[in-house]
Amino acid sequence: MMKVRRYLRGSGRVLAFVFVASVIWLLFDMAALRLSINDVNSQLLRERVIREKEIMMMKKQQQQYIGFTQPKRRGFKHPVQRVTHPGKVEHNPGIKLDQVYRHELDPKMEVKKSNQGHEGHVLRSDKNKSDLSKENNGGGLPKKKAVNFDLKVAVANVTQMQRAFRTSKNVLKADLDKAAKSTHSPSDNKDSKTGKKVEEDLVNNGVKVSQPRADEAHPVKTISQQTLVKDVDRKEEVKLSSKPDVNLMSGNHSSPVRKPGVHKVLSLDATNSPRDPNAVGQFGQAVILPGSKDAEVMKRWDEGHFNVYLSDQIPVDRAVPDTRPESCAQSLVHDDLPSTTVIFCFVDEVWSTLLRSVHSVLNRSPPHLLKEIILVDDASTKDYLKEQLDKYMSQFPKVRIVRLKERQGLIRARLAGAAVAKGEVLTFLDSHIECNVGWLEPLLERVYLDRKKVPCPVIEVISDKDMSYMLVDNFQRGIFKWPLVFGWSPVPENVIKKNNMKDTDPIRCPVMAGGLFSIDKKYFYELGAYDPGLDVWGGENMEISFKIWMCGGEIEIIPCSRVGHIFRGQNPYKFPKDRQKTVERNLARVAEVWLDEYKDLFYGHGYQHLLDKKVINIGNLTEQIELRKRLKCKSFKWYLENVFPDMDTPVVKAEGLTTSLNKQHHKDATLTLPVLFLLIQNQQFNYTWMKNIRQQNLCIGSQNSGSGFALTLCINCNSSEPQDDSVRLRPCQPSSVFQKWEFTHYYVK
Ligand code: UDP
Ligand code: MN
To answer: Which residues does the annotated region (Disordered) include (predicted)?
Structure first.
């Protein structure tokens, strides 16, 4: 008895409680699952799915739950939930099993016979490797010629295009009547003089640009294509409100301004052949590998900094659960949405994830809206990304490959992709994603309503360990913390209440995560695209976010558009220069151009060393600063107050009269300026993030060589010495009481 008690003491008790609670939870879950299934038609298949889920759940109970790696760049915690069954998706009770597996449970669908019994998604170690590679590399397909790309031309064209757009009447006109009329009239499609110019330039520079033929049908034919026809046939002629911006997505559609019809979002999910419900990782489920595979998993981990071994076993066109809020599938979008070019940049991407990314776009995008997919190879070193990739992609006429001769980094690689894009809207995606059903139209709808809207999908999480597709909490948006660190945070409760926000409403997003968004192509160039001076990776999401908001645009997260992304703990590719230095340099460029007086906060949060020109050369910023002036962009203060008001950012740490804490030695040690400055009435000082005592643009500093002080350049420390009541400059001594000062008002501790 004593022994038992001892076990039930401390952590033993907690463990026992957790065990009992888990068993009860499991029983409830199983009961709930059974209740939710009653469709006779697909009874057999459903039971299999349930059985597998039960096994999965039991396995999960046995195994320690593996936490998610915190994404390094895409920021602090992105709250996720596993999609297991309806009972667990608490904030989204609308998701039912038969919705989650909508497409796979289609009774018309032929189900492959399986003899794997209960093994389900626990990986079979006998999976034939050569089978897999056959599946993955597309057999003996003809080769597709990739395009070699001269980046200098693309970057030069950013400026060229900007110029062209500045003088373009079309753009101005489009701006004026955007409320009444779509800015994407069919003529926009052809007019792109500037686009043509870029291409001419490219051709002149010896770059071949392969083009999909206009009459090409989408290569994938499936069951879901029938759904497309059905949906369009059923389209309702709904009259629109006089303010088309009043969110059509949430079903607000009542008064006539625009003629074009609308239809229900197309929830396409096309595949070449029926999916195997028993395939590894099918339906986005977690896969638990037997322990005997650990060594292999570890061996291949560094290829992508996720479970590459497992990814290679998962079908390249697997299904993922439809995680959209329930009413998304019913929402209406316009019939005449603009077309898009999807741009994937990659460097040494894992084969299976790159293919899965491309397939998810081909399978789940309405063909008439997908102009093309451009793969920009940022000088990858892996052999399989050369000929083998050309060959594989040659079966998809819409896919084009652009190869950069030298590693340019993600920012300039995107510029290269954008320069040859033919769609009206650019959609950038990372090369290890899976687009969910209905992902594209809700994004294009926002651009259609206002060309200055830059919509981002909800970025869901594909586990780097078990490759499961996990949905994220509602109302998440991208923000930053000092010193310009990206992260996720929920929309404040009062904002949700005040605006009566529904879970399907677009969310204003102060900073985009960076990898996944759509933008009107012309608008992208009007904004000066990305600062081409940014290197490799990092900071570009801050740059484009500040630029969009401060120069008249908006960034939104669209809850009805969802894309899974593998968040990795580390970048799997090499940085040509030191990673830390590259990112710091990029951020300093952003700070110098966009942050105004707030750049002190950036430098003051651990980046003081970047101010030393000997330490770092951030390059020339003239063009970027000019661009900001030309676009008449608003101030960073405006951005903080209007876009991110819940971020409490005092521009100084403290202000007021400045008194020495060393009061026993001199009673009146208020810091006042020498005679010369007594003419200045204001004896109030700011204590800045750069640790300066400042008045307007000047700081307290040393006067010539002596220990006196004056308003001068912002260097040195200020200290009050005991000999007399005067204040003199001395080298910093953090422990010295004579160097402690107090201000009347503090904004931060
Ligand atoms: N990328 C690239 N060149 C680079 C660095 C990154 O083309 O020098 C690609 C990368 O393959 C990926 C995208 O840019 O498709 C975003 O990079 P990553 O996924 O590492 O960023 P994260 O998601 O970690 O922020
Ligand atoms: Mn990524």
So the answer is: 111-144, 177-204
